[in-house]
Amino acid sequence: MPRYQHYGAQTAQGQMPMPPPSRPQSAAQYAGAPVPQMAHYAPHGYAQQALPPQQQAQQPPPPQQQHMMLPPHMRPQSAPHYPQPPLPQQPPHLQHAQQQLGYPTHAAQHYAAYAQQPPAQPQHAQHVPLAASSAQHAAPPLPDQPSARAGAPPKDPRPKTEDVTGTRGNDFEDYFLKRELLMGIFEAGFERPSPIQEESIPIALAGRDILARAKNGTGKTAAFVIPVLERVDPAKAAIQIVLLVPTRELALQTSQVCKDLGKHLGLEIMVSTGGTSLKDDILRLYNTVHILVATPGRLLDLANKGVAVLNQVVAVVMDEADKLLSPDFQALIEGLFEYLPPTRQILCYSATFPIKVKDFKDKFMRQPYEINLMEELTLKGVTQYYAFVEERQKVQCLNTLFAKLQINQSIIFCNSVNRVELLAKKITELGYSCFYIHAKMLQSHRNRVFHDFRNGACRNLVSSDLFTRGIDIPSVNVVINFDFPRSAETYLHRIGRSGRFGHLGLAVNLITFDDRFNLYKIEKDLETTIQPIPPSVNPELYAFSG
Ligand SMILES: Nc1ncnc2c1ncn2[C@@H]1O[C@H](COP(=O)(O)OP(=O)(O)OP(=O)(O)O)[C@@H](O)[C@H]1O
C-alpha cells in the first residue's frame, strides 16, 4: 500500500489532520490567519530583527480560532510572541579559525625540505590504505619544531555521526602535504580527514581525474581544495586552478575555504562571478592569480575576451557537478573546456549524480577514479518529519514550530521568489527576526544577507533554491520546507543545510494534499522514511546544549 494512503489515519499520533480527498473543507475550519500589517518590514532581504517591546505589545495575537485549527500539539502557547533561546556563539573551533595566528617565520624555512618533497607517489593512486603505511612515510616533526598542529583551536565538543567519523583512521600528515598547508588545515579546526577526504585527497594528489559522490556536509570542499592547494606553484604567475560552482554565494564561500586552508601558502585567490563589476575582474586579472573560483558564465566571458588565460591550468574542479552539467550550465561548461589545456585534471564532486554526467565523463574525463560514499542517501544526523497542513495553515504552523522548536538558526525554503518575499514578510509580522534571500535580489544585498546570517545576526533565513546547494552555515540546526521540493535531489540538498559535518539536525516538511504523491516518491527515491511530526520533538535529536 502506498504510504500516502495512511497519513489520514495517523492523526492520533499527533500530525496534522488530513482532510479526506472527497470532502470539501469549510473555509471557517481551515481559513488562514489574517496577518497583521507590519510597518517594519524592510526590503532587500532584511526583515526587521525584532519588534521593539512596546510595538510587540501592540501586535494582535494570532486569533484563537486559528490555533484551534491545529491539532493540540501544534498550537502555540498563550503568548503572542514566543521567546526563542538566545543566538548561540559559533562553535569554538570556528571562532578560533577566524583569528590570525602568528607563526615564527623560521618555521617555514626549517621545513622547506619537507615541504618540497614530491607530491603523493603512485601508490596513492592504487588506493593503498594509508593508515597501514603511514608510519613509514609520514615525516615526524623535527625535535626543536612545534608540530603543524600547534595552532589548532579547541576541539568542537558536539557529537558527530559515522557519516564523518567512519574513516580508516588516516591523518592529514599521511599525505605529504606542505607544512604551510598542514598548518592552515589544523588552524581551521580539522583534526582528521573525513571519509570523502581520505578517499579523494591521495588520488587527486596523484593527478587522476575524479568523479566523487558523498553526502552533504561531509567535507567535499576540503577534499578537493587541499590537493589543489598542494599542487599550485606560488612562483608561477598564472591561473593554475579553476574551481567552478553554480552560485555566486557558493563561489564566495569556496574561495574563503581556499584562503583559510591556504593562508600560509602565499597564493593569490580570486573570485569571479556574475553580478559584480566586469571591469574590476579584468583589472584584477592583470595581476597574478593562482586560483580562480568562478561561476561558469562570468569565467567564459573573461576567457572569450582573452582576459582570463586558462592555458596553464593544471586542474579544474566542478563542485555540485551535476548542477553544472544540467542544461542551465552545460553549454557554458563545454565552452570553457575549449580554453583549457588537454592535460588538465578534472575533479567532479556532488551528493547527487544522475545519469546525465555520463556524457560529460565520456567526452572530457580520462578514466576517472569513481568514489561513491552514498550507499545510504540521507544523513544519519538529520531527523526528518512532516506536518500535514492546508496551504492556508502553513504560516500558523510555522509560527507553532518557531514556538516549539529549539532553533539555533533555521533556513526556510520556498519554491518561488515571490513566496520567499511574502513569507519573510509574514514571519516578520509574527514578530520573529528573519532575513530572506533569492536570486532576483541585487548581488550586494545578497552578499550582505549571506554574510550577516552566517555571522549569526539573525535566526531565520527564508530562501529560494539559491541556498539549496553547498551553503555551509554550521549553526543551522533546523531546515523547514515551507514548500515541499519537487525533486529528490533538491530535497536532499536542502535538508543537508543542517547536520553539517556529521552534527545533528532537523528537517520539517509542510505537506499539503497536493504534495502527498511527491512525498511518497521522494521517500522512495531516497529510501528514507519521513515521519509525522510528534507532539513534541526531542531536542536531543537536533539541539546541542553542550
Ligand atoms: N576534516 C574535517 N574536520 C572537521 N571539520 C571539517 C572537516 N572537513 C570539513 N569540515 C567542515 O565540515 C563542514 C562541511 O564541509 P563542506 O561544506 O565541504 O561539505 P560538503 O560535503 O561540500 O557539503 P555540500 O554537499 O552541502 O556542499 C564545513 O563547515 C567544514 O569546515
UniProtKB/TrEMBL annotation:
The enzyme's E.C. designation: 3.6.4.13
Biased composition (Low complexity): 47-58, 65-81, 116-132
Biased composition (Pro residues): 82-91
Occurrences of domain DEAD-box RNA helicase Q (ranges): 170-198
Gene Ontology MF, one: RNA helicase activity
Motif (Q motif): 170-198
Catalyzed reaction equations: ATP + H2O = ADP + phosphate + H(+)
Disordered, as annotated region: 1-100, 116-169
Keyword annotations of the record: ATP-binding, Cytoplasm, Helicase, Hydrolase, Nucleotide-binding, RNA-binding
Gene Ontology CC: cytoplasm
Protein family membership: Belongs to the DEAD box helicase family. DDX6/DHH1 subfamily.
Name of protein: RNA helicase
Species annotation: Diacronema lutheri
